[in-house]
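Handover notes (outgoing to incoming on-call)

Open items:
1. 5-oxoprolinase subunit A: sequence verified, structure written out, both below. Nothing else pending on this one.
2. Nothing else urgent.
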Amino acid sequence: MSTIDLNSDLGESFGPWPMGDDAAMLDVVTSANIACGFHAGDPAGILRSLKAAAERGVTVGAHIGYRDLVGFGRRNMEPTDAELTADAIYQIGALQGLAAAAGTRVAYVKPHGALYNTIAHDARQAAAVIAAIKAVDANLPLMVLTNAPVVQQAREADLTVICEAFADRNYMPDGSLVSRTRQDAVLHDPAEIAQRMLRLVREGRITAIDGSDIELDAQSICVHGDTPAAVSIARQLRVDLSAAGVALTPFVV
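5-oxoprolinase subunit A structure tokens:
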């Protein structure tokens, strides 16, 4: 039987402004990337999401990002090495404290948005994030974009790497994500997405935006929590993958 992890970006609501449906998503996913307050989330809301994850036995990861609440962490930035390392340490540590209070623990680290896409190919910023993880806990796996240079860079630094594919995003022929500045960057049809991901699990392939096939080696599939149809997509994924004999299990327990 094949296995795959299903994750989602959660804990991103801020005060009275809701973002996504964490409770519903936590009933479906096996891992939750919880915001750490820099790109989204406030302490009380993050704690609620952590408690809900703990109640359901969902594995928790630190979803670290640039210090960019206004841009939701999706704007490119150029912090110094010292700034980025310290910011990452700060966010992981903050989530560790909240996770302990919620009766769970931070089991991995996944960068968010622009930081995620930048470190995929920017060795300098990737090194700063890697240094932060090693300073806090070198046993924490790093979740990154599959096939990107950061995979080898992190492995050479002796970190465990979790390669990730995105269910609700279109891909360029080189394996990078289609820019969110394009209208066709995000996929919305749950049935189509589920079939794409089933093929990924079975064949290690996915269709790029130009119709070509690309190979992706992924141990986890992400559904963005802020996508309008996020819960429907996640539910369809779970149903179709399970029906095909694919077991949904967290990569860290």
